[in-house]
Structure formats: C-alpha cells, structure tokens
C-alpha cells in the first residue's frame, strides 16, 4: 500500500470520515476515493494538497494526522535538525 493511501485510510477510519463525505467535499466521484483507500490508485501530489485542505475543513486534527502519517519521517527529520 502506498504511503498516501495508507495514511488516508487510517485517518478516515480514525476520525469517522466517510469516503463519500470526502469525495463530496473534494467535488469528485466517490469511486476515486475508494481507489485511493483500497490502494488501486495513488493520489497525485496536487490531490494530496487538496485532500489536506478538505480535511482541515472537516476536522483539523484529521488533516494534521494525515500530513504526519504521509510525511512522517521527513517532518520528524527536519524538526530534529532545527536549533
């Protein structure tokens, strides 16, 4: 499973956000979200940004966790090198 797919699936489940609710908020067909969650297709980098923005409106904590799960080690590495 791709990192974005796994992060999205985990966040939707943890915060009780349905695939349909995310799809409606993104203005796309639910089948696209289904494909991401079931690792049939990887969202583009532009779509990752859109997902994050929509999650912020639905649940800011979900958006934060999505970014953390998706970028985890990158964000942690950057923070550990700051003075």
Characterization of the model:
The structure is a single chain. The protein is mainly α and 83 residues long. Helices cover 76% and strands 0% of the residues. The chain has helices at 3-14, 19-26, 30-37, 45-58, 60-80. It is globular.
List keywords for this structure.
83 residues, 5 helices, mainly alpha
Quaternary state of this entry equals single chain
pLDDT below 50 for ≥5 consecutive residues: which ranges?
none
The count of strands amounts to 0
Total number of helices: 5
Output the CATH topology: 434 Repressor (Amino-terminal Domain)
- What value does the Rg take, in angstroms? 13 Å
Strand content: under 5%
Order of helices and strands: HHHHH
So, CATH architecture? Orthogonal Bundle
How far apart the termini lie comes to 35 Å
Number of structural domains? 1
Given this structure, which CATH class is correct? Mainly Alpha
CATH superfamily: lambda repressor-like DNA-binding domains
Structural shape: globular
User: What kind of sheet is the major sheet?
Assistant: none
Helical proportion? over 70%
Average of the residue pLDDT scores: 90
């Amino acid at each position: 499973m791709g990192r974005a797919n796994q992060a999205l699936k985990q966040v939707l489940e943890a915060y009780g956000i349905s695939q349909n609710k995310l799809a409606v908020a993104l203005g796309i067909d639910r089948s696209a979200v289904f494909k991401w969650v079931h690792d049939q297709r990887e969202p583009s980098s532009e779509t990752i940004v859109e997902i994050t923005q929509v999650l912020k409106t639905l649940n800011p904590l979900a958006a934060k966790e999505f970014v953390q799960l998706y970028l985890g080690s990158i964000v942690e590495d950057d923070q550990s090198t700051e003075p």
